[in-house]
């Protein structure tokens, strides 16, 4: 008799199914839906990236799991130029097929199991928990180290700027997490998907010398090109940091065929080598954020955190599903806060990822309120 079980039974229900009805209501608006529920880019991929992709489209061979030397050098240079990260060896960079894939597999790739504890933010991107559940570890939601008591976690996730709250962790907080992790033998995985999208305060990488004193031991920074370079469709990200940990991830991923396609590696190299397209995209989001923020506040919403990242963490001081209904009547779809943890049931997450035309439509509807 096989002992086969359904792996999906380990996982929570797919939360997006719970907003299907409210989405249908928003879609019934005579001027169409303004979908601000997901953080998916809508602006075109920059020409310089598309050219790099198509320039190698005829190459037939397998790509390497570690990525081309050009890609890894471009990542090291970009992290230095954009975020002041120094001392990173190109060997300690590993491309991934979008960072969601890495996050969902990380506890298993690191060899964690039922005896281990994974700490995730109290209000968190759901895939941190998914990865822990797939590996069968314990999971604790905690933003402060005191919540941990005497426990020694195996892995601590950080996400600054946060999805969904837009909260940015200060240098002192990050330094304390690094010191705590080193004391207790934990790995810190810092999801830095939104590091390039800051508005009102400066986020820091876990690999910033001000945070880790130039010592990357036990630290992994996870970087996605989905948001900053509009590359969600390409599936493009990388992990960088502790050379030993990255070498271990590389070894397992080599055996598993977890390779980033070669044309995507070329596209990533171009994207990491060019800051102009990134700056242009940031300015698009800045303008949309400004308009949506003013309109939401004018319509009686309070916006918490949101000092960086792609979302306005908004509340009307009521159950988030009531707020979702209120927005859907105006043809606007948001994501309910209860997707992200048990303590965020009065917030909705409003994404900045809609075209200027759709953002203007949302603003008009909120103003007409
Ligand atoms: C916090 C966070 N991490 C990781 C990801 C995954 O990004 P990707 O798989 O596109 O690299 C997302 C996407 O929304 C995110 O919000």
Automatic annotation (TrEMBL):
Cofactor list: pyridoxal 5'-phosphate
Enzyme class name: transferase
Swiss-Prot/TrEMBL keywords: Aminotransferase, Transferase
GO MF: succinyldiaminopimelate transaminase activity
Entry keyword Cytoplasm: no
SUPFAM superfamilies in the record: PLP-dependent transferases
Coiled-coil stretches noted in the UniProt entry, renumbered to this chain: none
Entry protein name: Succinyldiaminopimelate transaminase
Domain Aminotransferase class I/classII large: 33-366
Source organism of this protein record: Nocardia xishanensis
EC number in record: 2.6.1.17
